[in-house]
Specification:
The protein is built from 12 helices and 12 strands. With 314 residues, the chain is of the alpha+beta class.
Length: 314
């Protein structure tokens, strides 16, 4: 089981790079502070994953039956995915959070909605409506509600009621979008648009004291934005950068990050993936931005996967 999970995770990184659909940002509210983007179309074209999908679709089961009835296969009809979420560490009410997944793909809206509505299991649990002209499905589970909304036959939003509502209001121009958040947009612009997977996050204020309380991470406690991108070409390229507050001692930041790399490099791990990371570890600082970059060879990752192909790891 571990091997299968690891294989899927690593396969995400082995996608042939392609620019993310930047227009999906046009539906993200300006109060989101974590955005993840990925290319699903390329993910499912990876040979190992494609084989598993073909095997799944060749069988008669609940999933394949639903695909045939609905005329929609998430594994084939979704091209790109964007996920936005707040990073409020004190948030307890997940159902009321501003969270949504935005999908770009190919959707037969009426057929999808009709199939959901006719499913006997959905009686009294689903409400079909049109909100501001957008076809909407509301899923009801006690006091909790989730929504699916189609902006058109290429864009669908699924999430909490608040999250979907926010995306809709941004689209209608009734709520500010993430592009109006100058600082966040600046950090977003630093993302590698050719990356396989990219994450940009605004660091919550209540997380910073934890960094400050530890002597080894104290110098990093003024970080404002974190930007991670992973790109697979011949090797897996890793870039992690942070934007820091004014007056931050960037020499101290550089020293801390360099020290971490030296520790990893000196560990002499039995796993080549870790050794690759340490040996190729680099730190660069420009102004108030610090960047860590490294790479892991495909041969090292393949070797690690093979090492997990043992009875105790299955």
């Amino acid at each position: 089981m571990f091997k299968k999970i690891l294989l899927v995770f690593l396969s995400v990184l082995f996608i042939v790079p392609q620019c993310f659909a930047a227009d999906l940002l046009d539906f993200v509210p300006n109060n989101a502070n974590l955005i993840l983007r990925s290319n699903i179309k390329q993910l499912v074209s990876i040979p190992e994953i494609k084989t598993q999908i073909d095997n799944l679709m060749s069988q008669e089961n609940e999933y394949t039956s639903q695909v045939k009835t609905m005329g929609f296969d998430p594994l084939k009809d979704v091209d790109n995915l964007l996920f936005f979420i707040p990073l409020d560490l004190e948030q307890k009410n997940v159902a009321g959070a501003n969270v949504a997944l935005i999908f770009e793909g190919k959707f037969d809206i009426e057929k999808i909605v009709e199939t959901i509505n006719k499913d006997a299991n959905n009686q009294d649990k689903v409400t079909i409506s049109a909100e501001d002209g957008y076809r909407t499905v509301t899923f009801i589970n006690g006091e909790n509600r989730a929504k699916m909304m189609f902006f058109d036959n290429t864009i669908a939003v699924i999430g909490t009621e608040k999250g979907v509502e926010s995306a809709k209001l941004v689209k209608l121009g009734k709520q500010a979008g993430i592009k109006t958040n100058k600082d966040f947009s600046t950090s977003l612009a630093k993302s590698n648009q050719n990356a396989t997977l990219a994450v940009v996050a605004a660091i919550p204020n209540d997380a910073k004291p934890h960094l400050a309380a530890n002597e080894s991470t104290k110098s990093l406690s003024t970080i404002q934005y974190l930007n991670l991108d992973l790109t697979y070409n011949t090797n897996l390229n890793i870039n992690l950068s942070g934007d820091f507050a004014a007056a931050t001692d960037m020499k101290a930041v550089e020293k801390t990050l360099t020290s971490f790399g030296e520790t990893v490099k000196g560990s002499k791990s039995p796993y080549d993936v870790i050794n690759d990371f340490g040996n190729n570890y680099r730190v660069t600082v420009e102004g108030l931005n610090a960047k860590v970059s490294s790479l892991i060879t495909k041969s090292s990752i393949d070797k690690y996967i093979q090492s997990q192909d043992t009875p105790q790891n299955k």
